[in-house]
C-alpha cells in the first residue's frame, strides 16, 4: 500500500517496534481520555466553502482566538445544523460556542449567509466581514439580490473597517478578532455581571520563547485539560484554568500515575497550578472533587501574602538538580549487516553528523 509522505512507518517491520510498548501505552492512555466527554472551546470558525479548502495548523489561528481561547473549525454542512440556545451557538451533539467567526475572503454561499442571518437573529454573536459574492451563478440574479438585502440587515449600508450591529437578539461584529470580542463581552449569571469572558487556559511565569498547547474536555461531573509542552528543553510553567473550587489532579499518561496536586491556589475565578514538563512532555490536569471552603480561602490569600506558606506547598514536582554527568569515550556498535561498524566517540552525536557513511546513513539498531 501507499503511505502518506508526512508521517512515519508504523508497523512491526520498523527497527524500533520491539521497544515501542511504552510509547503505545502513552498513546492509549491519551486517546482513551480524549475520547471521553465533549470538547470545550469558546470559538467556532467557519472556513468557508471555496476550493481548495482545508484546516491548517492550529497556530495559524484564522479566528484570532489564541492564546487565551481555543477554537474549532466547521464546514458548511455542520454550519447549517447550528442552533442558538441562551446566546450560545450549539451543535446537535451538545458542544457549544460563544462566538462564530466567518472567513475573511468576503465570499459566502447564499445558504451559509441565510444561516448566519438566522443565527444572529436568534441571539448568536457572529464576527465577520460583509460578503460581496456568493461565488456561484445558482439562482442568479435573485441570489445576489438576496445577498445584498441580508448584507444591509446584518452589516448596514455604511462601509466601515470596524463596527457592530444588533440584529434581533444577537450581534454582528466586524473588524475585530474573536479574542478582542471575548475580552469585552458582558457575561451574566444569577449573582454577578462580568466584563469579558475569562480565558479558558493561560500559561504564566514561563520561560522566554517557550510554547504550550492545551485541549479542554468536560464530563457531567469533571473537567480535564491535556497540556502539551512544545519545547525541546525541560520547562516549568504556571497554568491558570477557568475552574474554581475543584481539586486539581495530575494524571501522567507516560507512567499512568494519578495524584492530587499539592501546590495550587485560586484567585479571581481562576485556578493556578504550577506544572513541570520534560522535553516535549505532557500532562492531564483533572478537576472533579470539590475543595472545602476553608481550604480555598487559605489558598486564595497566598499570592497577596507573597510569602511561602508551610501548609500549602509551592511546587507539584520534585526538583532534580544535575550534580554530574557521564564523561569519557563511548564505544558504539552498529550492526555490520546494515553497513555499520564498531567505533569510539568522544561524545554522543547524531548519526547523521558522523563522517563514516556506513554510520551517517545507518538505519538499523545500535548496541
Shape: globular
Q: Approximately what portion of the residues adopt beta-strand conformation?
A: 25-35%
DSSP strand tally: 23
The overall pLDDT average reads 87
pLDDT under 50 segments (min length 5)? 189-193, 304-311
Separation, N- and C-terminal Cα atoms: 32 Å
- The proportion of residues forming helix, as a percent range, comes to 10-25%
Structural class: alpha+beta
| Strand order of the biggest β-sheet | 1-14-15-21-17-18
Query: With helices defined by DSSP (H or I, 4 residues minimum), what is the helix count?
Result: 8
Major sheet details: 6 strands, antiparallel
Radius of gyration over C-alpha positions, nearest whole angstrom: 26 Å
Structure report:
It is a single chain. The protein is of the alpha+beta class and 367 residues long. It is built from eight helices and 23 strands. It has helices at residues 21-34, 76-79, 110-122, 142-155, 178-184, 293-300, 302-305, 357-360; strands at 38-40, 43-46, 71-74, 83-85, 88-90, 96-97, 99-101, 125-127, 163-167, 170-174, 186-188, 193-195, 201-204, 212-219, 222-229, 235-241, 246-251, 258-260, 265-267, 270-277, 282-290, 330-333, 342-345. The strands form six sheets. It has a six-stranded antiparallel β-sheet, with no helix packed on it. Strands 3-2-7-8-10-9 form a six-stranded mixed β-sheet, with helices on both faces. A four-stranded antiparallel β-sheet has the order 13-16-20-19. The longest helix is centred in the first third of the chain and has 14 residues, at 21-34. Residues 189-193 and 304-311 have low confidence and may be disordered.
Amino acid at each position: 500500500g501507499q503511505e502518506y509522505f508526512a508521517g512515519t512507518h508504523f508497523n512491526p517491520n520498523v527497527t524500533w517496534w520491539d521497544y515501542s510498548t511504552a510509547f503505545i501505552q502513552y498513546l492509549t492512555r491519551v486517546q482513551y481520555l480524549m475520547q471521553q466527554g465533549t470538547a470545550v472551546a469558546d470559538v467556532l470558525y467557519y472556513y468557508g466553502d471555496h476550493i481548495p479548502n482545508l484546516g491548517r495548523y492550529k497556530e495559524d489561528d484564522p479566528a484570532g482566538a489564541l492564546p487565551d481561547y481555543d477554537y474549532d473549525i466547521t464546514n458548511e454542512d455542520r454550519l447549517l445544523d447550528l442552533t442558538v440556545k441562551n446566546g450560545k451557538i450549539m451543535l446537535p451533539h451538545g458542544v457549544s460556542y460563544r462566538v462564530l467567526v466567518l472567513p475573511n475572503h468576503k465570499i459566502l454561499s447564499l445558504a451559509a449567509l441565510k444561516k448566519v442571518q438566522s443565527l444572529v437573529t436568534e441571539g448568536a454573536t457572529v464576527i465577520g466581514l460583509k460578503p460581496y459574492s456568493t461565488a456561484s451563478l445558482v439562482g442568479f440574479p435573485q441570489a445576489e439580490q438576496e445577498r445584498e438585502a441580508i448584507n444591509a440587515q446584518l452589516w448596514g449600508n455604511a462601509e466601515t473597517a470596524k463596527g457592530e450591529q444588533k440584529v434581533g437578539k444577537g450581534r454582528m461584529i466586524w473588524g475585530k478578532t474573536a479574542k478582542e470580542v471575548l475580552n469585552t463581552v458582558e457575561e451574566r449569571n444569577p449573582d454577578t455581571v462580568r466584563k469579558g469572558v475569562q480565558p479558558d487556559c493561560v500559561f504564566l511565569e514561563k520561560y522566554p520563547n517557550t510554547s504550550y498547547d492545551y485541549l479542554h474536555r468536560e464530563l457531567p461531573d469533571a473537567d480535564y485539560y491535556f497540556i502539551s509542552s512544545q519545547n525541546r528543553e525541560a520547562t516549568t510553567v504556571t497554568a491558570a484554568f477557568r475552574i474554581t473550587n475543584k481539586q486539581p489532579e495530575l494524571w501522567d499518561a507516560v507512567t499512568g500515575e494519578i495524584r492530587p496536586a499539592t501546590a495550587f491556589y485560586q484567585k479571581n475565578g481562576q485556578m493556578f497550578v504550577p506544572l513541570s514538563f520534560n522535553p516535549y512532555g505532557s500532562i492531564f490536569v483533572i478537576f472533579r472533587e470539590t475543595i472545602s471552603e476553608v481550604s480555598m480561602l487559605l489558598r486564595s490569600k497566598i499570592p497577596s501574602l507573597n510569602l511561602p506558606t508551610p501548609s500549602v506547598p509551592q511546587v507539584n514536582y520534585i526538583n532534580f538538580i544535575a550534580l554530574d554527568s557521564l564523561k569519557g569515550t563511548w564505544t558504539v556498535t552498529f550492526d555490520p549487516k546494515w553497513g555499520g561498524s564498531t567505533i569510539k566517540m568522544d561524545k554522543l552525536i547524531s548519526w547523521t553528523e558522523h563522517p563514516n557513511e556506513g554510520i551517517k546513513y545507518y538505519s538499523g539498531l545500535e548496541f
